[in-house]
């Protein structure tokens, strides 16, 4: 029969949950954005054409010079090639900022998936508890079937009151109702778990009872801690980018064109022309905008430090609460075992009394139900302890 472990559920969640697709999408987006940034180091070609009509043109106020005045309609078409020569590492800083942002995005996905593990825990151990309850019901059913045979024999010999077997058979019908309820509940939970982990689970699948150990310590290894650190690294990358933003930028350029007039304003004809040169672009004064942006980033770092502090505080509070919860449940389990031992002695006596007609079938069912309920309490506490341990390990990052 097919079996399922808690670790398998974690692995399928990390592999199949729809959010996982965002990793690839973020990487594609980063690749495109990085290419856009890198393209700025390549020559940039601009084409421009214009036709104008002017109300006045420049004239030489000297008679008999032989220089024709310019036409009032003028035409020009140019192609300009710009090449970035120096920008103090602004391109590399931009790429570093993009890379830091990608790491943050991917870590955020990991954090979101990690949080879903608690939902997996809740479903897994709820289904596991249903399995245990079904096993107890089977044991109760077997006991009732054994008693029914004995009671019918006792009725036949006149030792037990007639219709006593009907009481036991009615209890069997109730047990079947409980089986049906467990079956429907398990199917519903399995459907939800299947959707969460992206893997179809059969209704008859058996969930393994995990062996969980917890290490009590103050160390937290959650992905959220890494996310906070990556966010600060992203801020540092943006600070570096801002520092490069104010640096001077040196370009080389070459322009070729054809027009009337050309560069010689005294030549009233269509001619070709070109210019080459260097261009320096330096934003010397920006009303302290760059400085204020860096101050804003610094505040963001303080906010992240505060979020980290709050996260550690809340996580440690939850861990302390779970540690107390584990101790409480362990105490319940110890007392459950003592109660069950006593209930078994009482039931054994009731079985003997039922055979001899001393008590009714209803009285026997009462004692059998008491034992079943106490065994059910024990299984519930054991599963609750496993759930708390699993969530404790999730909170610790173990």
Description:
This protein has 398 residues and is α+β, with helices and mostly antiparallel strands. It has 7 helices and 6 strands. It has helices spanning 6-16, 21-38, 90-156, 164-197, 223-245, 289-355, 361-396; strands at residues 3-4, 44-53, 73-86, 206-207, 249-260, 271-281. A 4-stranded antiparallel β-sheet has the order 2-3-5-6, with no helix packed on it. It has a two-stranded parallel sheet with strand order 1-4. Helix 3 (90-156) packs antiparallel against helix 7 (361-396). The longest helix is centred in the N-terminal third of the chain and has 67 residues, at 90-156. The protein is elongated, with a radius of gyration of 41 Å. The chain starts with a strand and ends with a helix. The model has no long low-confidence stretch (mean pLDDT 94).
Instruction: Using the CA coordinates, give the radius of gyration.
Output: 41 Å
**How many domain units?**
1
Order of helices and strands: EHHEEHHEHEEHH
Mean pLDDT: 94
Number of helices: 7
Strand content: 5-15%
CATH fold descriptor = Outer membrane efflux proteins (OEP)
The first-level CATH class is given as: Mainly Alpha
Per CATH, the architecture is Up-down Bundle
- For the biggest β-sheet, the strand order reads 2-3-5-6
Number of strands: 6
- CATH superfamily grouping: Outer membrane efflux proteins (OEP)
Largest sheet: 4 strands, antiparallel
Q: Which class of secondary structure composition applies to the elements?
A: alpha+beta
Q: Unreliable stretches, pLDDT < 50, 5 or more residues? A: none
């Amino acid at each position: 029969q097919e079996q399922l472990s808690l670790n398998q559920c974690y692995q399928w969640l990390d592999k199949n949950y729809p959010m996982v697709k965002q990793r690839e999408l973020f990487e594609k987006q980063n690749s495109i954005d990085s290419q856009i940034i890198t393209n700025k180091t390549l020559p940039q070609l601009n084409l421009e054409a214009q036709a104008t009509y002017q109300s006045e043109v420049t004239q030489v106020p000297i008679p008999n010079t032989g220089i024709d005045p310019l036409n009032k309609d003028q035409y020009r078409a140019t192609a300009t090639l710009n090449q970035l020569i120096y920008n103090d590492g602004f391109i590399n800083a931009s790429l570093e900022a993009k890379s830091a942002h990608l790491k943050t995005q991917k870590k955020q996905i990991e954090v979101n998936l990690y949080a879903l593990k608690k939902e997996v825990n809740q479903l897994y151990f709820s289904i596991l508890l249903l399995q245990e309850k079904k096993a107890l019901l089977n044991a109760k059913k077997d006991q009732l079937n054994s008693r029914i045979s004995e009671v019918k024999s006792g009725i036949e010999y006149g030792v037990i009151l007639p219709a006593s077997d009907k009481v036991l058979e009615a209890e069997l019908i109730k047990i079947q109702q409980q089986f049906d309820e467990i079956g429907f509940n398990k199917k519903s939970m399995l459907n939800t778990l299947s959707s969460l982990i992206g893997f179809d689970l059969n209704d008859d699948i058996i969930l393994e009872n995990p062996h969980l150990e917890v290490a009590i310590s103050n160390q937290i290894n959650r992905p959220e801690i890494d996310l906070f650190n990556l966010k600060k690294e992203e801020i540092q990358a943006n600070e570096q980018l801002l520092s490069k933003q104010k640096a001077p930028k040196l370009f080389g350029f070459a322009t070729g064109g054809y027009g009337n007039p050309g560069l010689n304003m005294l030549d009233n004809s269509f001619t070709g022309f070109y210019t080459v040169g260097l261009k320096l672009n330096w934003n010397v004064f920006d009303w302290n905008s760059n400085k204020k942006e860096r101050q804003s980033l610094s505040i963001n770092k303080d906010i992240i430090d505060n979020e980290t502090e709050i996260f550690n505080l809340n996580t440690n509070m939850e861990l302390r609460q779970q540690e107390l919860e584990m101790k409480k449940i362990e105490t319940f389990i110890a007392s459950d075992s003592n109660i069950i031992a006593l209930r078994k002695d009482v039931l054994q006596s009731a079985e003997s009394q039922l055979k001899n007609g001393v008590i009714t079938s209803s009285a026997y069912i009462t004692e059998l139900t008491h034992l079943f309920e106490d065994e059910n309490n024990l299984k519930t506490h054991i599963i609750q302890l496993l759930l708390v341990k699993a969530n404790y390990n999730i909170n610790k990052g173990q």
